[in-house]
Amino acid sequence: MLNIDEIQNGVVIDHIKAGMSHTLADVAGLYSLDCGVAMIKNVRSTKSGKKDIIKIEGDTSSINFGVLAYIDPEITINHIKNGKIIKKEKPVLPDTLVNVMRCKNPRCITSIEHECDHIFKFTQSGKYRCVYCEEEFNRLK
Ligand SMILES: [Zn+2]
Question: Which pLDDT tens digit goes with each residue over 16-30?
């Protein structure tokens, strides 16, 4: 397990709702990364009672942090360089997500044509919808 002090270059995702770190890591594709990833669950927090923290050591340039705001808008992304926090940011929702999450509609073209990109657009209703079948992405699944 990585210690927060041991991260020299990477990202610490803080203030994650307790129990959500697995979902966030899955959606952000952290399991397929070549980086060191540590999840710390149920950390005591003065602000929210309990929280999860994810630490990623290494090159994080390929990670889409914006999508995480859809799952948990309260998170903070801390960018670490040479052992110091150089930037703290709240993730911003991207307008379009390509191959980040999959459409769950069995009748959707993306379920039939496996070469098809999974594209979701952020709509006025505040939700992501599949561009092919308009199926809404459910953040809790
Ligand atoms: Zn679809």
Answer: 999 999 999 988 889
DSSP for 31-89 reads GGSSSEEEEEEEEEETTTEEEEEEEEES--TT---TTHHHH-TT-EEEEEETTEEEEEE
Q: How many angstroms does the Cα of residue 138 sit away from the middle of ligand 1?
A: 12
Distance 82 CA to ligand 1 centre (A): 43
Place of tokens 């948990």: 72
pLDDT tens, residue by residue, 47-59? 768 999 999 999 9
Q: Which two tokens stand for residue 66?
A: 């914006």
The full set of domains in the chain, from first to last, is: 4-89 (3.30.70.140), 96-130 (no CATH)
- How many Cβ atoms are within 10 Å of 103's Cβ, its own excluded? 23
Ligand 1 center to residue 133 CA distance, Å? 4
> What is the pLDDT, as a whole number, of residue 27?
84
The two tokens of residue 72 are: 């948990």
Calculate how far, in angstroms, residue 134's C-alpha sits from the geometric centre of ligand 1: 6
pLDDT category at 80 given cuts 50, 70, 90 is very high
Place of tokens 């930037």: 87
